């Protein structure tokens, strides 16, 4: 007979046994914890400024496993997943006794497995610790691991692990990788048909892969839709419509944008799994498409690099290091935005800007484009021709070489390099050489990124802007002295906005400049509007020549297409600052009507002699028939030196028109003494006094 004392002793013994069992389980749990840390090894992701995926790197095992949480997934998918895989997921503690009992009864009744009893926790256990075969021992170990996982993680954390680790065929793991590979989109807005397919695939991922077994994938999706309709997770009509939706028959490549920047981000912080950049994926996608198409048109071995940045913040919003990262024939692995190359004529605007600052020129100031010798340096124009007298505006728009060198000689090459340093840009000079006049025509090395940084300052009213590296940076306006004064910067932008667009491109309100390096090795184009600056480089990474390659013919069309395909709206250039106006040539002060300054700021008489009248000589007596009563003969006038055009005066009265020739003629009104004067274009004069018979 069971006495109270016996009952108490029994209960006490059972309690001790339970306590010992619990203690043993805790000890075993601590001794053999589930390998959760290994499960958290995910692909490294590089994101744009808005969190969109630019590029992912496979795990060390070669898996595409993108970290995912339930917040990253369409809520409808989560409801369908739990309804199909584990209806009591939120109630059980890792093992569902009801499902286990049902599976056992079906096994005994049918002699085979009819339905499984695996919970999502058990499936996570299997995913983090795969085991060969489906033995009872493996199943028991899976049950134990599920209990351990439930002790350590919350239900949302377990769900997140499943969403990250679930297999979808091949090397795809997790719903994000599968959604991107099969549907080309993030899983935030999956359709019912897409959700049903992704619920079905993990059970038999290899057999149901739609890119290999389309029919089996369709059957599996239909089974999920039918069960969802029965469970009233989706309506019957909705399930029926979803069953008619096409299933993707091929696997897409995961996003692969900004390959060079992505690798730089990974090298910079190899332990970080998510790198936020300043790029914008829509802009990056457009620029990469333009670069790839352009390189294909331009021929083999030619590559294209592009950098687009915000002119106010300096943030890089698009960066293309090469036309195709995986094209070995174009050395696509080389990031040409960081390589020093000759910039051709792209530095000329800053020379003109210094001349505007110094008051040496205005837009309509006349400057000579003729053969010139600068102490042995004889620059020639790209087409080997010369335009004669042109305005400063025309000289910059036509990118004439001699006028640019004349201005650089006046403002000083060293001073130009100092201005570049204000913008944190340091062009590379040839070894053991000081800054010389050749830098105005591309005689230095500069990277595309640095060139864009210079133009960003030009577009930002002359205030230098520090471009970021595109990787979690905070670029800002560079404090200190300006790159150019606002009035000078406005004049340059105003001139460049009037440059003729390349053939086939419409006027987009872009101010831009082109450049071609010596030997057709580099073609450049840099342009800006009120918000963005875009730089383009075209050439061969091995520095080989590309016959016929020019900035205007090759790089400028890419620039205009890049602005168009980037999707950014063109913003107007900044308005003119105080004191910045266009002045007609006739209204300019005499000192600015024609450029004639040397590096010391003096009249250029030291290089070109003043005009001198060589006929008639001083004091000459000349018989022109003035005393015969007949028609007076004209007097020949000859001079040497001076700078054309020339204005002749007789007794203070100008002759009818100016002349560029050094030979002229004058018909006196009558006999007697007369004073003849000639004035050249820079205001130098010469006079002689003669007697006319």
Structure, described:
With 693 residues, the protein is of the alpha+beta class. 35% of the residues lie in helices and 14% in strands. Strands 7-6-12-11-10 form a five-stranded antiparallel beta sheet, sandwiched between helices. It has a five-stranded mixed beta sheet with strand order 14-20-19-16-17, with no helix packed on it. It is rod-shaped. The N and C termini lie far apart (168 Å). Residues 4-22 and 598-607 have low confidence and may be disordered.
Q: How would you sum up this structure in a few lines?
A:
By secondary structure, the chain is an alpha+beta fold. Helices cover 35% and strands 14% of the residues. Helix 3 (75-85) runs parallel beside helix 9 (192-200), helix 5 packs across helix 6 and helix 14 (348-357) crosses helix 19 (486-496).
N-to-C span = 168 Å
What is the helical fraction, as a range of percent? Answer: 25-40%
Beta-strand residue fraction = 5-15%
Helix count from the secondary structure assignment: 21
Structural class by sheet pairing and helices: alpha+beta
Total strands: the figure is: 20
Mean pLDDT: 87
* Spatial strand arrangement across the major sheet: 7-6-12-11-10
Main beta-sheet strand count, sense and barrel state: 5 strands, antiparallel
Oligomeric state of shown chains: single chain
| Basic shape | rod-shaped
Indicate the radius of gyration in whole angstroms: 40 Å
Unreliable runs: 4-22, 598-607
């Amino acid at each position: 007979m069971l006495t109270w004392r016996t009952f108490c002793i029994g209960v006490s013994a059972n309690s001790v046994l339970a306590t010992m069992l619990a203690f043993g389980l805790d000890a075993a749990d601590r001794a053999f914890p589930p390998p959760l840390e290994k499960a958290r090894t995910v692909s490294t992701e590089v994101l744009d400024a808005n969190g969109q995926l630019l590029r992912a790197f496979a795990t060390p095992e070669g898996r595409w496993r993108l970290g995912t949480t339930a917040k990253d997934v369409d809520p409808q998918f989560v409801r369908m997943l739990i309804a199909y895989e584990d209806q009591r997921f939120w109630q059980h503690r890792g093992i569902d006794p009801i499902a286990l009992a049902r599976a056992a009864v079906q096994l005994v009744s049918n002699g085979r497995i009819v339905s499984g009893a695996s919970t999502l926790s058990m499936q996570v256990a299997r995913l983090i610790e795969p085991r060969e075969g489906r033995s009872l021992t493996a199943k028991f170990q899976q049950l134990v691991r599920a209990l351990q996982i439930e002790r350590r993680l919350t239900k949302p954390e377990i769900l997140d692990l499943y969403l990250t680790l679930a297999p979808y065929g091949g090397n795809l793991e997790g719903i994000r990788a599968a959604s991107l590979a099969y549907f080309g989109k993030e899983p935030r807005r999956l359709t019912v048909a897409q959700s049903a397919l992704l619920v079905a695939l993990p059970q038999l991922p290899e057999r149901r892969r739609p890119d290999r077994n389309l029919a089996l994938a369709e059957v599996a999706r239909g089974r999920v839709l039918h069960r969802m309709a029965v469970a009233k997770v989706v309506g019957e009509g909705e399930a029926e419509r979803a069953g008619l939706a096409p299933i993707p028959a091929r696997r897409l490549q995961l996003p692969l944008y900004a390959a060079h920047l992505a690798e730089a981000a990974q090298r910079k912080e190899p332990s970080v799994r998510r790198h936020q950049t300043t790029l914008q994926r829509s802009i990056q996608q457009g620029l990469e498409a333009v670069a790839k198409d352009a390189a294909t048109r331009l021929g083999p071995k030619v590559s294209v690099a592009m950098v687009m940045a915000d002119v106010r913040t300096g943030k890089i919003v698009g960066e293309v290091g090469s036309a195709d990262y995986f094209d070995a024939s174009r050395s696509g692995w080389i990031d040409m935005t960081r390589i020093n190359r000759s910039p051709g004529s792209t530095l000329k605007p800053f020379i003109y800007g210094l001349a505007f600052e110094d008051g040496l020129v205005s837009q309509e100031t006349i400057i000579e484009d003729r053969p010139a010798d600068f102490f042995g340096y004889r620059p020639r124009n790209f087409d080997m021709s010369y335009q004669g007298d042109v305005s400063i505006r025309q000289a910059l728009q036509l990118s004439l070489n001699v006028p640019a060198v004349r201005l650089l000689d006046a403002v000083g090459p060293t001073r130009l390099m100092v201005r570049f340093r204000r913008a944190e840009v340091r062009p590379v000079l040839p070894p053991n050489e000081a800054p010389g006049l050749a830098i105005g025509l591309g005689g230095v090395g500069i990277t595309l990124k640095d060139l864009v940084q210079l133009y960003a300052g030009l577009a930002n009213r002359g205030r230098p802007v520090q471009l970021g590296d595109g990787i979690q940076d905070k670029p800002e306006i560079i404090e200190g002295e300006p790159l150019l004064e606002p009035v000078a910067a406005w004049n340059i932008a105003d001139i460049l906005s009037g440059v003729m667009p390349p053939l086939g491109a419409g006027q987009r309100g872009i101010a831009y400049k082109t450049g071609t390096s010596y030997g057709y090795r580099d073609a450049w184009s840099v342009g800006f509007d009120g918000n963005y600056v875009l730089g383009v480089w075209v050439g061969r990474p091995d520095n080989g020549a590309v016959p016929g390659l020019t900035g205007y013919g090759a790089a400028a069309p890419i620039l205009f297409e890049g602005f168009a395909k980037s999707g950014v709206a063109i913003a107007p250039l900044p308005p003119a600052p105080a004191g910045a106006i266009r002045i007609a040539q006739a209204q300019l002060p005499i000192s600015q009507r024609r450029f004639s300054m040397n590096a010391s700021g003096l009249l250029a008489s030291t290089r070109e002699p003043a005009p001198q009248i060589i006929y008639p000589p001083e004091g000459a007596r000349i018989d022109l028939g003035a005393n015969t009563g007949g028609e007076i003969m004209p007097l020949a006038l000859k001079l040497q030196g001076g700078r054309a055009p020339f204005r002749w005066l007789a007794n203070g009265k100008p002759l009818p028109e100016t002349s560029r020739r050094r030979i002229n003629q004058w018909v006196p009104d009558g006999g007697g003494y007369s004073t003849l004067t000639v004035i050249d274009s820079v205001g130098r004069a010469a006079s002689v006094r003669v007697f006319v018979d």
